[in-house]
Amino acid sequence: MSARVRFILAVVILLLLMMAPAALTLGIALHELQGEERAVFLAVLERWLPIGAMLGLFALLLGVQWLRTAFKQYVRGLSALAEQIRLTIDVNRAYRITSVGPPEAQALAEAVNALADQRDALQADVDARIAAAKAAVEEEKNRLAALVADLPMPVLVCNLDGRILLYNNHARLQVRALVPDTHAGGGVIGLGRSIYGVFDRSLIGHALESLQHRLERVGSRPLAHFITTTRAGQLIRVQMAPVLSSAAVESDAGVTGQRGIAGYVLVMENITKMLESGAQCDRTVQALADDTRAALAGIRASLQGLRGSHAAEEVRAVADAIQDEIQILTVRLNQSAQEYASTLIGRWPLEDMLGADLVTAVGRRIEKRLGLTAKIDDVATDLWVRVDSYSLTQAMTFLAAKLDESFGVRLVRLRLSHAGRMVQLELRWAGTAVSTETLLGWQLEPMSVAGETSPLTLRDVTDRHGGQLSCGRDAAIQQSFFRIEIPVAVAQEGGEGAALVQVESRPEFYDFDLFKRVGEDRALDDTPLTALTYTVFDTETTGLEPSAGDEIIQIGAVRIVNGRLLRHENIDQLIDPQRPLRPEGIPIHGITEEMVRGQPTIATVLPQFHAFCEGTVLVAHNAAFDMRFLQMKEEGLGIRFTQPVLDTLLLSAVIHPNQESHKLEAIAERLGITIIGRHTALGDAIVTAEVFLRMLPLLADLGIHTLGQARAAAEKTYYARVKY
């Protein structure tokens, strides 16, 4: 029951208490008196009743005023005192209660302040111990940072959902080079962002399956590799190592096992220049071979002419000897050119892989993607191949899909066997053989399986491996087959070491608690507030009326991931409003005409901000004002801000409904937050983010744990009625 309702009830009760005795006395007198005495009593009552009524009304007003004062001091005052006590206990240890109100309330405030002083004295020792423990943890963290700083390549660490947990500046610069159309506001690299903005999801999934399979083999070193091209045409070699958990882990990727994978480390190497150098070497050697052949042909022709025009035996003997040497040189040169040509099959970087692992990966993919049954025939345990396992697995799955589509084949068999310097990977089935003409047509079309399309063709895959694809039928066992030749490799599993990471600066961007965040695709309203990612933002504008033509002149934003404010992942951008600034606003925000002239327009900045806050919950102070400016631009720019929005103004009214002010400065002071950079967009965004983080435990104390509960509570406050 609210204080106002209780006050009205108290007034009614006071009125009844004052009227009831008088009415009872009057009733008894009228009942007891008879005749002349009754008439005299009524006459006296008629004379004095107005005076009594006025005195009663005056007494009632005095009582109501006294009751109002008492309620203000003892009911609302004690409610406000309770909120201040919670601030002292839960939020701001330095906060002390102001001794105002009646003596009892002042005594209570002084007692609480004394208890707070005693609490602080006892807490000092605890804080010292905690500080020592934190220093030890920080020292270990710095050792990790120093270790990563000495590694030779860019590094990314992700959880099983592909969320980035660690990266360094070198990795960020590398990714910017790989993804040239990265938005300037934030890019695709950031804590909590998805690695699938950089690498194809199926590539990562394939590598994870390979890691899990190697983990299941005792003594195997879990390490996977893949090669990919970027939209900028760069060729990147990626090495993946698992981050193991102590228990089995299961995720959307379907990766489970006794030795669970909690995440993975990605090491990137740009090998484009290396391959270009190799290609130049190829051209040089080929030109040398061609020139040498031409020279030898000229020498041979000259010697033949010499033999015909001179008959001396000595000349013939010399000519015969030269001819023999030229013949030997020609044979050797041709052999060398042929051997060098055979090395070109590895021009696309291939990786060593155990043949059994390759066949298992192919079988799993066929069963998972197509729902077919894939059985594995004899495979030598020590047979190693040199392959691009991802494209080769795609090719075999594509062939199985074609068999199912064209001939209804539901059972396939896989076989891997030696064939000289090559290895034959076969896909077999019982049924009609495929004609050479049909296979030729399949080789030229892009591979598409279960909605996943690859730009490669079967011919691209065979050319990449320096082999060929053929079809046939084994009449002895009544099986038809596809056969792909792939190069053999020397097994050196113990040498599969991976050079990890090099950084140009300390990896200050990490949050390993994100390992625990698996499966974030739940409805946002049911998601705990502590599990969400937030973009906290603020705008500075030319004025307060967006519908009257006022424009945004600055946007500032920061991100909150896993309960941490990431100050380095921010947007701080001035905007040219293409209209004059209001003079009265310049002293407030400090932005002048010269500062915004020549800056990007809102048409450039707003899409970048939209990409920066994608997949997050928006947070602002007095968010209705800022959101109105954004929404005014949506139709013209073809974007929409559909993210959930939380307002720290409304949340403050939920947490402290009895406090008079809910301005950002007042909230920050109550919560013990120092304000720096006020009335700049980024400065206000940072203060708002710190305020919001302090609010989360206070909301939890009120039973508000999820996004839906926070929004519902905020919508019930008075301030939610304000419109712009």
Describe this structure in words.
The protein is α+β, with helices and mostly antiparallel strands and 724 residues long. Among the domains are: 3-91, no CATH class; 275-346; 351-495, Heat Shock Protein 90 (2-Layer Sandwich); 522-721, 2-Layer Sandwich (Nucleotidyltransferase, domain 5). It is built from 19 helices and 20 strands. It has helices at 3-32, 35-91, 103-149, 169-178, 201-216, 272-309, 313-343, 355-370, 389-407, 436-443, 458-464, 586-589, 593-596, 602-612, 623-637, 648-655, 664-670, 681-701, 707-715; strands at 155-159, 164-167, 224-229, 235-244, 261-270, 351-354, 373-379, 384-387, 411-419, 422-429, 448-449, 452-453, 469-474, 479-489, 509-510, 534-541, 552-561, 564-574, 617-620, 645-647. Strands 6, 7, 8, 9, 10, 13 and 14 form a 7-stranded mixed β-sheet that branches. Helix 8 crosses helix 9. The two termini are 32 Å apart.
